[in-house]
Design brief:
Layout (H helix, E strand, L loop, with lengths): L18 E4 L7 H8 L2 E7 L2 H4 L3 H10 L3 E8 L5 H9 L9 E7 L1 H16 L8 H5 L18 E5 L11 E6 L4 E6 L7 E4 L9 H20 L5 H23 L4 H20 L4 H13 L3 H15 L5 H11 L7 H19 L15 H6 L3 H5 L7 H11 L1
Parallel strand pairs: 1-8, 2-3, 2-4, 4-5, 5-8
Antiparallel strand pairs: 6-7
Helix pairs in contact: 1-3, 4-5, 7-8, 7-9, 7-11, 8-9, 10-11, 11-13, 12-13
Length: 403
């Protein structure tokens, strides 16, 4: 591992799930884990997620064998909207006397939906009256800014993709097509109580999902490492996870059943979630949210488009950090920081090309006449963390070149 520059340590916090179970085959332990937190399992799943786990009857059977009642409270059919959250909260069974534990099985969208529902179930006076405005009032920057003050229902996150690291983050990304926002409900209380990460569940993922989610995890690792709010523990996590991810992603794209590569990608996604939660992100994520609103671009695809652009933009400001990352990936990399940083920029560009994800903004359906809108609406907490300050005026020509 390359030597990190000496840094003055000051106060910092570190958030993570209180229990992490990682490894192929660990899904068999779901019932045992869920029984620690409640008496009734409320399932929130992706549209096809249960298939990766043996089907709904097998999942419910395992939970019942551990002594839990089971209720399926919702299915996530895309990245969650305020309407999705409101509808699910309104339809929840009564909490009193049930001892529910929310079990989220799916990609980052399903896990984020479950986080928001678990939080609002305990933080609203009358969950049965929840509507879109109620949800928006708890999303940063768009409503009344109401905080999450009470602990959410206990939640277990079981990812079936290797990308967002939502199983370890303190936010739930929620969008509203009508009001045109895609922002986060955010609180340290939103970190799942347990993350059960079984890489075998990701084997059925289609190639395009594997590619986009993998590049999302890699983007999160890089951006949290160079973020202006960077912290020592997240940087150490990145140095463990990123070399594994950039080596494993081409392997898993070539052979979807390469379990060793799947393990490396699931590990990278988990650590990327912990890294971003305790550090921050940057330009790629700042633009990706707006691109998702404008073009309905899946989050991982948007990050894949923007990652090489963001790396190039930050190349000069982050030369030393990029050199450290390149040396962590390739022990034979140049000790000259300029040469190593240049090699890292090329590596990321080549990786995105090999993944086969869209490379240009036009490729995801962005019209050229919407570039100004995209520049003006790319911001928020992610953009504030970018090492190079970017306002709409300076961002626009960058986006024009990426179109």
């Amino acid at each position: 591992m390359p030597h990190l520059p000496e840094a003055t340590l000051s106060r910092y916090d570190f958030l993570a799930p209180s229990s992490i179970l990682f490894g192929a085959g660990r899904f068999a332990e779901l019932g045992e884990v869920a029984a620690r937190f409640g008496r009734e399992a409320w399932l929130v799943t992706g549209s096809r997620s249960l298939e990766a786990c043996g089907g709904e009857s097998a999942v419910a059977g395992g939970l019942r064998a551990a002594g839990l009642d089971v209720a399926r409270v919702g299915t996530c059919k895309g990245e969650p909207t305020v309407a999705d959250v409101a509808n699910m909260v309104r339809e929840l069974p009564p909490i009193e006397g049930r001892g529910p534990v929310v079990v989220a099985i799916g990609g980052g969208a399903a896990i984020d939906l479950a986080k928001a529902v678990a939080a609002l179930a305990t933080n609203l006076v009358n969950p049965a009256a929840c509507d879109e405005n109620t949800v928006a009032d708890h999303v940063e920057g768009v409503g009344r800014g109401l905080p999450i003050t009470k602990p959410p229902l206990p939640m277990i996150a079981v990812p079936t993709t290797s990308g967002t690291g939502a199983e370890a983050t303190r936010n739930a990304v929620i969008s509203c097509p009508r009001r045109r926002f895609k922002k986060s409900m955010r609180s340290p209380l939103l970190v799942p109580r347990a993350a059960l990460v079984d890489p075998a569940l990701t084997v059925p993922c289609p190639r395009d999902v594997t590619a986009a989610s993998g590049l999302d995890a890699i983007t999160q690792l890089i951006e949290s490492f160079i973020c202006r709010f960077q912290a020592p523990l997240p940087r150490a996590l990145v140095l463990d996870a990123l070399p594994r991810a950039v080596t494993a992603l081409p392997k898993v794209l070539a052979d979807p059943r390469d379990l060793d590569a799947r393990v490396a990608m699931s590990h990278a996604a988990l650590l990327s979630g912990m890294a971003l939660t305790n550090s921050g992100l940057g330009m790629a994520h700042g633009v990706a949210a707006a691109l998702g609103i404008e073009c309905d671009t899946p989050h991982g695809v948007a990050c894949a488009v923007m990652l090489p652009v963001a790396v190039a933009v930050n190349r000069t400001a982050c030369q030393d950090d990029f050199a450290i990352l390149e040396q962590s990936i390739d022990p034979e990399a140049s000790r000259d920081h300029e040469a190593a940083a240049n090699a890292f920029v090329r590596r990321i560009d080549d990786l995105c090309t090999a993944a086969g994800t869209p490379r240009r903004l036009a490729d995801v359906g962005l019209s050229r006449d919407r570039l100004t809108w995209l520049a003006e609406n790319s911001g928020g907490a992610s953009m504030r963390g970018n090492p190079v300050s970017l306002d709409p005026h300076t961002l626009l020509p960058i986006l024009e070149r990426a179109w």
